[in-house]
UniProtKB/TrEMBL annotation:
<dbReference type="Pfam" id="PF02779">
    <property type="entry name" value="Transket_pyr"/>
</dbReference>
<dbReference type="InterPro" id="IPR051157">
    <property type="entry name" value="PDH/Transketolase"/>
</dbReference>
<dbReference type="InterPro" id="IPR029061">
    <property type="entry name" value="THDP-binding"/>
</dbReference>
<protein>
    <submittedName>
        <fullName>Transketolase family protein</fullName>
    </submittedName>
</protein>
<dbReference type="InterPro" id="IPR005475">
    <property type="entry name" value="Transketolase-like_Pyr-bd"/>
</dbReference>
<dbReference type="InterPro" id="IPR009014">
    <property type="entry name" value="Transketo_C/PFOR_II"/>
</dbReference>
<feature type="domain" description="Transketolase-like pyrimidine-binding">
    <location>
        <begin position="19"/>
        <end position="184"/>
    </location>
</feature>
Length: 313
């Protein structure tokens, strides 16, 4: 291999690493549209330009409804009822909170499947203020039966989860973030055991994993990773708990969102639970950075380490 060849391959590798979750989403859906005539994309201005190339190839299957999020979900439901596989996309609050009635009725009540793909996470872009933040999104979708909920922690996981979702007719929510772990993990059914220990179990959801690993580097605990939170891996948690049922749940959205799932999994086992996530007791009105919001909510490595150590003591 020549020096030029090596530099070229290195540049390609760096480019692949630098792909964001949103870019992985756009690339995966655009490519899938070329081979699957069922797939249609519905946007409400957000990211509409990213699907320009796909629109040029498939003008009838890339629909931008403008800033009309309720209509976006209604259109997606109508497309599903005609046999298409719609993908609706926007910022988290505009995709989940604003059109929730349409999600409940036009999709769920009609048994119309769709893939909802959000960006922005809980507070990825705090510069836009509270209008672009939705830490309660997973808890809200969790009130509806039958939804699969994916919270990937790496762009490569986005590709795998999305490809699988597009091949079904299910209701799927894929929660993207600008936060990501250093590497991808398996996205199959159930938890992935990242580290084994004897003093308890820490469940790290999506992009929280690297912070959890840093926070527990000197603590003798099992760390489970979840890129899919619904359905929740009850059997996997039961198997990991063993004789020391101390459970810490770390989620990048509303604190305690999956606490009831832990309770269900361990219904016949006395256990202790510490649920960590976006705080419920106060609303952060400052802007700042996403990392600063992590500190406020105790989701940075130092905050997690302090909470977990206190709980384990």
């Amino acid at each position: 291999m020549t020096a030029a060849d090596f530099q070229g391959k290195t540049a390609l590798a760096l480019k692949a690493t630098d792909v964001t979750m949103r870019e992985a989403f756009v690339e995966t859906v655009s490519a899938a549209m070329d081979t699957d005539p069922r797939i249609a994309v519905v946007t409400a201005d957000i990211s509409a330009g990213n699907f320009g190339a796909a629109r040029a190839r498939h003008p009838s299957r890339v629909i931008n409804v403008g800033i009309r999020e309720q209509a976006m979900i209604g259109v997606a439901g109508g497309l599903a009822l005609t046999g298409l596989r719609p993908v609706a996309h926007s910022y988290t609050p505009f995709l989940i909170e604003r059109p929730f009635e349409q999600i409940k009725l036009d999709l769920g009540h009609q048994d119309a499947g769709a893939v909802l793909v959000s960006i922005g996470g809980s507070y990825d872009d705090p510069v836009w203020g509270r209008t672009h933040q939705a830490p309660g999104d997973v808890a809200l979708i969790d009130t509806l039966p039958g939804w699969t909920i994916h919270v990937p922690g790496h762009q490569d996981e986005v590709r795998e989860l999305l490809t699988a979702a597009l091949a079904t007719d299910d209701c799927v929510y894929l929660r993207l973030s600008t936060r990501r772990n250093a590497r991808a993990y398996p996205t199959g059914a159930g938890f992935t055991t990242v580290r084994s220990g004897s003093r308890g179990v820490v469940v790290a959801v999506g992009p929280t994993l690297d912070a959890v690993l840093a926070a527990t580097s000197t603590v003798d605990v099992t760390v489970l990773y979840a890129a899919t939170v619904r359905p929740f891996d009850h059997a996997g948690l039961r198997a990991a708990v063993g004789a020391n049922p101390n459970v810490v749940l770390v989620e990048p959205y509303l604190q305690g969102t999956s606490a009831h799932e832990v309770a269900t999994a361990l219904a016949d086992t006395p256990h202790r639970l510490l649920a960590l996530g976006v705080r419920r007791d106060s609303e952060v009105r400052a802007y700042g950075t996403a990392e600063q919001h992590d500190v406020v909510h105790g989701l940075d490595p130092a905050g997690l380490a302090e909470s977990i150590a206190r709980f384990m003591r």
